[in-house]
Write a structure and sequence with these properties.
The protein is about 10% helix and about 55% strand. By secondary structure, it is mainly beta. It has a single domain, classed as Beta Barrel (Thrombin, subunit H).
Length: about 100
């Protein structure tokens, strides 16, 4: 697979504030190479075999979990579907409203 894009991967963390509340934050893990393509209903059905919400389809050798927050073009997205192929992974991502710093 030919990778022409890069995305940042973030890990969800929890820290306690001064009054003991658990506060969710996101810690940068790494920047990876990938290929990002716009999603269409037909592509999503063919790739994932079902109708799911998707803004982009991401192809990468990196193993990421559903729910992982990624960032590219100054926008944040969350992985909502994953397929393991023989030598790479295919992800569906949707927009999410989180502050990654």
């Amino acid at each position: 697979m030919f990778y022409t894009s890069r995305i940042d991967i973030y890990k969800e963390t929890f820290n306690k504030n001064e009054i003991g509340q658990s506060i969710k934050s996101y810690e940068f893990l790494k920047n990876i190479k990938c290929d990002i393509q716009p999603s269409t209903v037909n592509i999503i059905r063919k790739t994932f075999g079902e109708d799911i919400e998707s803004l982009f389809t991401v192809f990468s050798n990196e193993d990421m979990s559903v729910g992982t927050v990624v960032r590219f073009n100054n926008n944040t997205y969350r992985i909502n579907k994953k397929i393991d192929w023989i030598d790479y992974k295919v992800y569906s991502i949707i927009g999410c409203d989180v502050n990654v710093g």
